[in-house]
Write a structure and sequence with these properties.
Order of helices and strands: HEEHHEEEHHHHHHH
Bound molecules: zinc ion
Strand order of the largest sheet: 3-5-4
Structural class: mainly alpha
Distance between the termini: 68 Å
Length: 255
Amino acid sequence: MRSRNFKFRLLIGVAIALFFVVKRCSQQEVNPYTGRTQTISMSADKEIAIGLQSAPQMAQQYGGLHPNNQFQALVDNVGNKLVNNSIAKETPYQYEFHLLNDQNTINAFALPGGQIFITYALFSKLENEDQLAGVLGHEIGHVLGRHSAERIAETEYWQGLATAGSVGADIGDMVGSIGQNTLLTNGRGDELESDDLGVRFMIDAGYNPEEMIGVMEILKAAAGPNRVPEFQSTHPDPDNRIEKIQEAIKKYKNQ
Ligand SMILES: [Zn+2]
C-alpha cells in the first residue's frame, strides 16, 4: 500500500513539475530593448501598477521624500534628460525620480514600471551631474531590463517546482534552495546589465560615461574597511563593475 501511495505521489509531483516547466517555456520573451530572452509573467501595465503601489511605502522606509525642491528638481532634470534622449523613451514605462530624505543609507533603487529612488546620503556624495546621471541611468536600466518582473516570474517557477518536489518525494527544500541560488546569480547579471545600459543612456544623453566609474569609486570609498553600504551589498564588487563599464564605454562610443 505504502509503495503504491508513493508512486501516486511521485506521478502527481512530476505532473505539477511538468506544468511549471511548460508554463515557463510559454513565458519566454525577448526584451525588445536589450535583445535578451527572459521569463516574464506580467504585463508592463502590471509592472507600472506594482511600482506605483509600492512607491509610498518604499519612500517611507528611507525617511520620506527630501524637502529641498531644488535638489529634487535636479534629480528630475537629469532623470528626464536620460529618458528623453534614449530608448527608455520608447518603452511603455512611466519614469519618476524621487530624492529620499535618508542621510545615512547610501542607496539607489528602482521599482518595476519606472519608480526610481536615490537617497540623500548617496546624492550628497556625488561630485557632479554626470555621476548623478550614472546612478539614475543604472536604475533606468533595471526598469527597462524588467529585472523585478523577471525575478518574480523565476520565483514563481521555483516555488512551483518546490511544490512539485514536496508532493512527489519530500525534496521540496532541496529544490527550493537551488531556486534561491539561481535568484542570486540572476541578481548579479542584472547589475552588470544595468551598468551597461546606464553607460549607453549617459552617452545618448550627452553625459560623460567615465563618471560612472567615479560613482563606483565613491561606493568603494564609502564601504570603508568594515562597512558595506546597502547599494553595494546587493551589487557586485565595484572593481568587477569598473572593468565591465570600461568595456561598455568602448562598445557604445564606437556606435
Ligand atoms: Zn542595481
